[in-house]
Each structure stands twice: as C-alpha cells, then as structure tokens.
C-alpha cells in the first residue's frame, strides 16, 4: 500500500512540475535504496518520465553500481573511507564531504581536497541539493552546521568532519 501511495504522489508531482524538472530525494534518512529502486522501475525509467531522483548514501556498493540516467547518487565520506571515496570520484561520480566551515561567518569551502592522495575539485553543496546539476567526479562540499554548541558537536563528530581552514585540504 505504501509504495502505491508514493508512486501516486510522484506522478502528481510530475504533473504539477510541467514547466520544470521535478526532483525527489527519497531516502532522506533511511539509506535503504528505495529511490534507486523507483528510478529503475519501468514507470519512472521510461523516456516519458521527467522525474530526477537524487540520493546520498554510505553504501559503496550502491554508489558504484550502474544507475539509470535520471538517478544521481552522492557517496558520503565517513572519516574512514577515503580510498572508497577516491574510487567513486575516479568513476566520475559524486562524493559529499563535510568541512569545518561556519556558514554563519561566511567561511568559504576549500577549492580542492586531496582524497587518498589524489586532488579533486570541491563544489559548494550548500547552495542547492540538485545533485544532477553538479559536475561529475567532484566533491560536494558541505559546511558543518550546529545549532548551539558548535565546539561540542564538532568534537563529537570525530573524523566525519574534515578540519582545516586552507583552500586545499586532505582527508
């Protein structure tokens, strides 16, 4: 029943977005791959479907498998998967990395980041979440955001957040 309901909702979204490109980030918190399953379905993989599916995932396997053209995945840096991130980037796909930058102070993201010894361009992922418009094979840089206790939250984040203030960082 649930899957039928969201299929109907997606079709309604597609009709409403007749003058634009409807975009859906389905697995916002679950990382179950449901967005990819939908994108592969006959209903949404046909040329008549205009929906773009975007997703972030910590699944290396899911990031590296072939995807339909209307699906863009961004592999997430965890602090301990630099080599996997490099492989994803070398496969011309996206990797998201959170940097210790305070958006309230307008601190710019680095321009490049060395991942497992190779340098890649950093795009500003704070501007929008439309992954399908980002350059493939690049890092989607995100600023570390903490509502109140920034120092405490940063300490608790471990190696997930890349620290440093230069234009060129390593992880």
Description:
Strand 2 (52-57), helix 4 and strand 3 (71-76) form a beta-alpha-beta unit. The chain contains 6 helices and 9 strands, in the order αβααβαβαββββαββ. It is of the alpha/beta class and 171 residues long. The N and C termini lie far apart (44 Å). The protein is globular. The model has no long low-confidence stretch (mean pLDDT 90). Strands 1, 2, 3, 4, 5, 6, 7, 8 and 9 form a 9-stranded mixed β-sheet that branches. Helices cover 27% and strands 25% of the residues. It has helices spanning 2-16, 34-40, 42-45, 60-64, 82-90, 150-156, and strands at 23-25, 52-57, 71-76, 94-99, 112-115, 118-124, 139-143, 161-162, 168-170.
Write the layout of secondary structure elements.
Layout: H1 2-16, E1 23-25, H2 34-40, H3 42-45, E2 52-57, H4 60-64, E3 71-76, H5 82-90, E4 94-99, E5 112-115, E6 118-124, E7 139-143, H6 150-156, E8 161-162, E9 168-170
Parallel strand pairs: 1-2, 2-3, 3-4, 4-7, 4-8, 5-9, 6-7
Antiparallel strand pairs: 5-6
List keywords for this structure.
171 residues, alpha/beta, nine-stranded mixed sheet, 9 strands, globular
Summarize, please:
The protein is 27% helix and 25% strand.
Distance between the termini: 44 Å
Structural class call reads alpha/beta
Report the C-alpha radius of gyration, rounded: 17 Å
Total E-strand runs = 9
Count helical runs: 6
Elements, N to C (H/E): HEHHEHEHEEEEHEE
Note the overall shape: globular
Helical percentage:
25-40%
Major sheet characteristics: 9 strands, mixed
Q: What ranges have pLDDT less than 50 throughout 5 or more consecutive residues?
A: none
Let me know the average pLDDT.
90
Proportion of residues in β-strands = 15-25%
Oligomer: single chain
